[in-house]
Amino acid sequence: MAINQSTAPAETGLRGPRGEPVTLDVNGATYAIELEPRVSLLDALRDHLDMTGTKKGCDQGTCGACTVWMDGRRVLSCLTLAYSCEGHQIATIEGIAQDGELHPMQQAFIDHDAFQCGYCTPGQIMSAIALLREGNATTDADIAEHMSGNICRCQAYPNIHAAIREVRDADDGG
Amino acid sequence: MSPVVGKPVNRVDGPDKVTGTGRYCGEIVLPGLAYGLIVGAAVANGRVVSIDETAARAAGGVFGIMTHRNTPKVANQPRLIPSLAGQPAPGESFFPMQDDVVHYWGQPVALVVADSEEAAAHAAALLDITYEPGVPVATIADGRASATQAKTLFGGLMPATDERGDVEGALAAAEVTVDATYHFAANHHNPLETSVTTAQWDGDRVTLWDSTMGVRASQLTVASLLGIPLSDVRVITHFVGGGFGSKAMVWPHVTLAAMAARHVGRPVRLALTRPQSFTSNGHREEQEQRITLGAGRDGRLTAIRHRKLSVTSPFDDWAEPATGVSTQIYGCDNYLGDHQLIHGNTMTPTFTRAPGESLGSFTLETAMDRLAYELGMDPIELRIMNHPPVDNHGNPWSSDGMADCLRRGADLFGWAGRDPTPGTRQEGNDLIGTGVAGAGYPVAFMMPVQHARARIFHDGSVVIQTSAQEFGIGVTTSMSQVGADGLGVDMDVLRFEAGDTDLPNTTSAVGSMGATMQSSAVHNAATTLRNDLIAHAVNDGKSPLHGLSPSSVKVADGRMTSTLDPSIGESYADLLQRNRLLDMEALGSWTPPGMDTPHGLLTFGAQFAEVAVDKDLGLVRVRRMTGVFAPGRVLNPKLARSQLLGGMLWGLGQALLEGNQIDRQSGRWALNNLGEYLVPVHADIPDIQVDFVEVEDDVVGPLGVKGVGEVGQVGAAAAIANAVFHATGRRMNELPMTAEVVMNGGGPG
Amino acid sequence: MTMRPITFFRAGSIDEAVAAVSSHPDSAFLAGGTTEIDLLRLNVVQPTLLVDVNDLPLTYLEDVDDGGVRIGAMARMSDVARAPRIVERYPGMSQALLLGASEQLRNMASMGGNMCQRTRCSYFRDGQSPCNKREPGSGCSALTGINRGHAVLGTSEQCIATHPSDVAVALVALDAMIRTIGPDGTNAIPIERFFLRPADTPSIEHPLAHGELIVAIDVPALPVARTSRYVKHRDRASYEFALVSVFSAMRVDDAGNVAELRLALGGVGTVPWRAHRAEEALIGRPATPENFAAAADAEFADARTTPMNEFMVTFAKRAIVRELSEVTS
Ligand SMILES: Cc1cc2nc3c(=O)[nH]c(=O)nc-3n(C[C@H](O)[C@H](O)[C@H](O)COP(=O)(O)OP(=O)(O)OC[C@H]3O[C@@H](n4cnc5c(N)ncnc54)[C@H](O)[C@@H]3O)c2cc1C
Ligand code: SF4
Ligand code: FES
Ligand code: FES
C-alpha cells in the first residue's frame, strides 16, 4: 500500500516551534498556557504552572522523582512532552491531599519517617499510591521491586516499605 | 529529665515534604527569572582556543553568555578550608573562567543565560568551542610515578603523617602479621537534588537561595570571591534535597550564579544537570590503601602501618584522611599512618559521607578480620581486647561504648555459635556468610563559637533561630525539641527558624557535627531566656512568684511554678502581658571545647552483615544488616535511626555498587548518570536493624550529643566484605565488589 | 545538553504519521518518548519535527494463526507483560518485560519504541566523544575505553555497543515478525533481520526506511514457549539493564534428549542474541550439564573481549548452563 501524500498534515496540524496555547488538565483543573513543544511536562508543571511538588532529579528517566499520573497510571514527567498530555488527565502530588486532609499514604510516610531530605518523596508517594492501586504489593519483595523506579539517595527505603505496608493492610482491613 | 528530647517525634517539616509544598532552592519564583547553564570543558587538560558565540546568540531567548573573556576576575580566591571551620570554604582553591586553561574535564568554560531552561540548553549546545588538548593524567594507573608525600591534609588542618613508636621494628618482631592492599574506585555523592543556586541582586546586595549544607559558608565564600562585604550577601536555604558532602563546600557555580545575575541584570537560577553533578562538586577520590598489622599470638596489636595513595587536583593537597580512626580505635604503641598524593587532571575531591574513615575503617576492619583468622580468634573478642580506654594521646574517651555495641550487636544479629570456617554454608546457588566490623567516627571541634536566639512573644509563642539549616538530617525537628525543653514550652507553640545568614551564626552541619553544635547553641539560648523570664517573675511585685529564689521555680508548658507549691505560678504570657512586654529574647552561645581538649573523641559502633554470594556468577546480595551505635544522647530516636539506616545502606552501596573511574583517553568520568552510576534501589535493601547503646558524655556539649550522620556508614562495607570472605573464602581487595571482582578472586593485592 | 526547538505534530492516523515523517528529513516518531526525549536532550538525536503516534489505534493484542499473538506497536510494556495470553503462552516474554526498566517507564514505553531503543554506550550518549554510531567515521571510543558493559558477540572494529533491550531477546528467540507500514507500503521483517550488527555501518541499526512505522509485532504460536523463562543478572537487584540475561524455552524428550530449544541472550551482543550455535549443538543431544557447557562454549567461540569485559564470557556461559540445568530438573 502506498501512502497518499495528500494525507500529509495540513500546515495547521504542525505546532511550534514557537510557543502556542496548550490546555493541560492537572489535578482536575484546566490550565491554558503558552508553551513551546519542546517543554517537558515536568518543566511545564514546575516553571509554567508553579507546581514545584513534582521534582527533577535527573531529567533522564533514571530516578523517579518526577513521577506523576497520566490517566491514573504512573509515568515520568521528565520524558513526557507537555504537548503529548493534551486530552489526558494529569495528577501530581499537589492534588493528593484533599481539603487539607493528608492522604493516608502521606500520613504513613510522616509516621514512619519515610524520608529525610524529602526530595524524592513526592515521587515515592505518587508511586506508592499507584502501586497499591495496581495490586502488585502483596509481598515485601513485590513492594521492593515495583518501587525500584524511585530512587531515594537518603536511603529511607526500609521506612518507605513500612509506610506502604501499613496503608496496604489498612486498606485490606477496611 | 525532659518531656520531648529523646522522644520519637515526627518531623516537623513532614507535611511540607509529603505534600510537595516545601520550596527547594531551584523552586524560588522571582519576577523576570532567567535560567543559567554551565558549559563544561570537553577536554581534561589543555587550553580553550576559541569560542564562537554566533549561533548560540542567534538561537533566541539568550540574555548573555559568559566566558573567560568577559567573566569578572575574582577579588580574592580563598584557600580550601573545610566549611566546619567557619571561614570561606571553596571546594577548590581555583575559580574557573579566569583564563583559557583547562585543568579537568567538565571545568566551566562558559555560562549561558536565557529566558527558559530549554533556550539556555539549546544555546549552550550551539556554542562552538575549540580546544588545544593536552594528555590528561587523572588516575592512579597513569600518575603513580609522580606520587609525592603530602605534608598536610584537609586544607592544612591536619598533618598527613601520624607516627609513634617504631613500626618497622615492631613489625619485624611481630609473631603474626597481616598485609593487605586495596583499591577503591571513586564515589560520587548524587544527592537527588543536584546543586542549584538562585541569585538576585538589589543594588549592591545579593540574595542567594543556595542548596548548601551551610548558608554561612556560601556567604563567606561568595563575599570573598566577589570582594563585597558580608552584610551584602544573604544566603537563604529552607529545603535541601540531600548533600552527603557535595554541598558542604562552596563550588564555583554558586558565585557564577551571582556573577551571571549581575551580568544580565536579572535574577538567575543556575542548576547543575545530573551529568554536571559528576564534574562540579567534588567526589570521593580514587585511592589505594595498604595496611600492615603486627600482633602477638595472644591477639594484642603491636604495630599498625596504614598508607594511602590517592589522586587530587592540580591546586589542592586534598585527601580524605584515612587514618583518623585506625590510629586510635585499637590500642597500639607503634603506628604509622601517611598519605601520598598524585596531582592529576581532576577537580579537587571533597567530603563524601563518612569522609576518610569509611574507607580507612574498611581497610582496618577487614585487616582485623584477617588477623582474627590468622590467630583463630573470634573477631569480636579480638576487637574488644584491643580497644583501649584511652585514645592515642592517652586521653580518656569523652564517652565510649564500643564493646557494648559489639556485644549488643552480636546478640541482636545472632552471632553466637557461628562456624567461622569459610565456605561452609550453601543455599541453592548461594554461598552464605556473616561478618562483623567495628565503627568509629571522629568528633571534630574545629568550629568557631555557635549562636542561636530564642524569642518569646506575649501570647506565649516562641521562635528559635539559628542560621544553619535542614538538609534531611532532621535538625528542624530535633532543635524544636531541644528549644521546647530548654525553655519549658510545648513544641506546638514553638517554631524553629533556620537557613538564613541574617540569623545568628551556626556553622555548616557537616562532619556529623550539626546536631552537636546546634543543639548546644539552641539549648543555651532557650535556657538563658527561661532564666531571664524566671528572674523577671521573681523580681516582679505583681507576680505570684515574687520573692522566690529562681532555683525554686520550674517551668513546663510555658508556665512557671514554685517547686514547693505547684499551685503558685503564672504563665510566661501572663508575665509578659502584665508588664506590657511584647516579647523577650536571649542569645545563646556555645564555645566548642577545641581540637586540643584532653579527651578521646570518637563516636563508636558495630556493624554486622549476612550476605549471599552467587557461587558461579559472583553477584553479592546482602540479606541482613545489624548496626549498634553509641552516639551519646539521642535527641530523637526516630530520626537518629533513619540517619543511621541511611548510613548503613550507603555502606552497602559503597561495598557492592558504587564506583566511578576516569576514562584514561579523555580524562572524563566514565559514568555520569543514575542509570550507570548505580546507587541502591528499593530491591537492594536487606532486613536491617539499628539499635543504640546510650552513653553519657559531658565533654561534647551541654546535651552530650555526638553525631549520627557518618558513623552509620563506617564499618558497613567492611562487615559485608568480611561476610563475603566467610561465604567464599576469598578476600576482596577492591570496592565496589562487583561480579567480576568476586569471580576473579578479589582483585589485585 | 540541549533542548532544540521542535515542531510537533500529533498524528490522527497511520497514514498521517507515515506521511509526516517521510516528508520531513529531520523528523522522528514519538511514542513513549523514553528513548527519544532522553536522546534529544543529550543532543544525540536532532530531529526538528516530532510526530506523536500515541493516538494511533495500535495498542491492541489479538490472536493470529492458531495460537500466535499480534501485538500492536503502541501497546505499552506493562500492559503486554500482564496480558493473560502473553503470560500463558510466552511467560518468558512477560518476565523479560517486567524485568525491564521500572513500572513508570513500562507504562510509557511502547513495544515498537522498544525495538528501536538505542544503546546505552556512554560514549554514544555523551554527544561528544568519537563514536561511529553517532557520527560515522569518527572512531569508537569504547574500543580502548571503559567497556565493562560492552558486547562480546557480534562486534566489529567499528562498534562494540551492546543492544540494551530485554523483550527483544525473547522476541528473537520466538522468531517474531516486525510488521511495518512505510511510504512504500507494508512490510514484514523477520526479527533477526530487523536487528543489524554494526559491521561497517554501526549507525544503521535496522532496515526501516525513514518514515516507516512499526505497526505490530507478530509472535508465532510455539507450544514450547509455554514453559519459557527469562532470567536477568545484574549488579543491582532492579532498575538496571542486564549484565547477562538468558531466555530459554526447552523441551526434553523421554529419552532425555533435547527435542526443542530456543535460547537467546541479552547484555552480551550488539543485537539481541539468538544462540543458534548453542541450539544446534544441543538439539537431539542428551540434556546434560556437560552438553550445556559445550553448547555455551560453542556459542562464545568467536567472542571478542577486552580486559574489562572478559569476565562476561565466563559469566554468560555459567548463566546458560545454570539456566538449562534448572529447566531440565
Ligand atoms: C532509565 C531507563 C531504563 C531502562 N531500562 C530498560 C531495561 O531494563 N530493559 C529494556 O528493555 N529497556 C529499558 N529501557 C528502554 C525502554 O524500554 C525504551 O526506551 C522504550 O521501550 C522505548 O519505547 P518508547 O515508546 O518510549 O519509544 P520512543 O522513545 O518514543 O521512541 C524510540 C525510538 O523509536 C522510534 N519509534 C517509536 N515508535 C516507533 C514505531 N512504532 N515505529 C518506528 N519507529 C518508532 C522513535 O522515533 C525513536 O527513534 C530503559 C529506559 C530508561 C530511560
Ligand atoms: S561502541 Fe559503538 S556506540 Fe559505543 S563509542 Fe563505539 S561506536 Fe559508539
Ligand atoms: S527526573 Fe524524571 S526520572 Fe529523574
Ligand atoms: S528523602 Fe532524600 S532522596 Fe529520598
Automatic annotation (TrEMBL), chain A:
PROSITE patterns: 2FE2S_FER_1, 2FE2S_FER_2. Residues 1-21 are annotated as: Disordered. Transmembrane segments: none annotated. Keywords: Iron, Metal-binding, Oxidoreductase. The keyword Oxidoreductase applies. InterPro entries: 2Fe-2S-bd, 2Fe-2S-bd_dom_sf, 2Fe-2S_ferredoxin-like_sf, 2Fe-2S_ferredoxin-type, 2Fe2S_fd_BS, Aldehyde_Oxdr_Iron-Sulfur, Beta-grasp_dom_sf. The keyword Oxidoreductase applies. SUPFAM superfamilies: 2Fe-2S ferredoxin-like, CO dehydrogenase ISP C-domain like. Residues 20-96 form the 2Fe-2S ferredoxin-type domain. This is (2Fe-2S)-binding protein.
Automatic annotation (TrEMBL), chain B:
Residues 19-135 form the Aldehyde oxidase/xanthine dehydrogenase a/b hammerhead domain. InterPro entries: Ald_Oxase/Xan_DH_a/b, Ald_Oxase/Xan_DH_a/b_sf, Ald_Oxase/xanthine_DH-like, AldOxase/xan_DH_MoCoBD1, AldOxase/xan_DH_MoCoBD2, AldOxase/xan_DH_Mopterin-bd_sf. It holds the Pfam family MoCoBD_1. The keyword Zinc does not apply. It comes from Asanoa siamensis. It comes from the Bacteria. This is Carbon-monoxide dehydrogenase large subunit. Keywords: Molybdenum, Oxidoreductase.
UniProtKB/TrEMBL annotation, chain C:
The keyword Membrane does not apply. The keyword Transmembrane helix does not apply. Keywords: Oxidoreductase. InterPro entries: CO_DH_flav_C (IPR005107), CO_DH_flav_C_dom_sf (IPR036683), Diverse_Substr_Oxidored (IPR051312), FAD-bd_PCMH (IPR016166), FAD-bd_PCMH-like_sf (IPR036318), FAD-bd_PCMH_sub1 (IPR016167), FAD-bd_PCMH_sub2 (IPR016169), Mopterin_DH_FAD-bd (IPR002346). Residues 1-224 form the FAD-binding PCMH-type domain. This is Dehydrogenase. It comes from Asanoa siamensis.
